[in-house]
Amino acid sequence: MSLQNFLSALDSLKSEAIATLDSATDADAFEAARVKYAGQKKGALKDVQKQMGSVAAEDRKSAGMRFNEVKQAIEAALADAQARLTGGGESGADPTFDPTLPGVRPMIGHIHPITQTINHLTEIMGRMGFEAAEGPEVEDPHHNFVALNIPEDHPARDPLDNFYLATAATGDSKQNVEGTRLLRSQTSTVQIRVMAQRQPPIRVISLGRVYRPDDPDATHFPMFHQMEGLLVDKHVTMANLKTVLRVFATNYLGGDVEIRFRPSFFPFTEPSVEVDFLWDGTWIEFGGAGMVDPNVFRAVGYDPEEVSGFAFGLGVERLCMRRHGIKDIRDLYSGDMRFLSQF
Ligand code: DAH
To answer: Could you read off the pLDDT of 116-144 as tens digits, one per residue?
Structure first.
């Protein structure tokens, strides 16, 4: 046998034996491997050793040296496997066990899928120059309705569609009295808060919770999240709106996402549209948008002859659910680790 062949037989024996011993999970598997590779009579090591006699005399020294190395490596793997399977060998002491460490290994948590989505959306919009702004979840009717051009008799202000809070004065939840507060029903409130404090140009998004008294089902929950967007500058058009939303959807959902506007109505935009994305062959509605209504600009002291802008509001749960194939919004808020730990 040539030296070359002998050495390569040794090499494959070594890797096969070590792999088998490393993957042995019980005493029977260990014993079978021990007999197969290191058995005194018919073991594979013995077989190879016998073949050494057929290696040319001048190569025998190197052959012998390599044989010893392989034999030692297999013996070491046998010892390791035995220690592992018998819980640390004869003394029973496990060298990896440190009795001074605290006893319970803590479960490592991770960020909730909705928070992950919020971070992701913020990052995508940030690349287009949109800065994240925040507003309170307990709002007054001025920011939730009045400044957004939603008049007092508008159905969106109905107590049945909002969580009005009991006021200190009356101990009652009254809709249109001084000091009325409600849980915001939309993140459009943040448009007003930002514009009231700054001058154009403005490019902001606001992501956060909103509340509506809906009965929970697969697509509704009384608390959910929206991403509001607002851009105000000179000469802003709907083409700008469409481009921003398309770039956003393409980044978040992946592929080249088509976008479609359908005529609609919102009190704070004129014209208003529903926004659909074509994703995986189906058109899905993700929210509303439009050009900021002149009345909204007037409410914050901007001159609608001077500036124009667009706004949009998208459902965060809807985006997250689409991207991850989640079928029921309630799963996001059940606190069930079997569900949450998949994200
Ligand atoms: N606030 C709307 C809602 O809650 C969503 C929306 C529609 C936001 C149009 C906008 C917009 O900024 O322009 O349904």
So the answer is: 999 999 999 999 999 999 999 999 999 99
Helix residue spans in the chain (DSSP H): 3-23, 27-38, 44-51, 60-85, 113-127, 141-144, 189-197, 238-253, 294-299, 316-324, 337-340
The pLDDT tens digits of the residues spanning 151-160 come to: 999 999 999 9
Residues of the chain with CATH 3.30.930.10: 113-340
DSSP string for residues in 229-297: EEEEESS--HHHHHHHHHHHHHHHH-S--EEEEEEEEETTEEEEEEEEEEETTEEEEEEEEEEEPHHHH
The DSSP element (H or E) to which 224 belongs, if any, is: strand 223-233
Phi-psi region of 220 (alpha: psi -120 to 50; beta: other; left: phi over 0): beta
* CATH domain 113-340 topology: BirA Bifunctional Protein; domain 2 (3.30.930)
Residue nearest to atom 3 of ligand 1 (CA): 186
Which residue's alpha carbon is nearest to atom 13 within ligand 1? 289
- Cβ of 293 closer than 6 Å to ligand 1, yes or no, is no
Burial class (CB in 10 A: 0-12, 13-18, 19+), 311: buried
| pTM, full prediction | 0.70
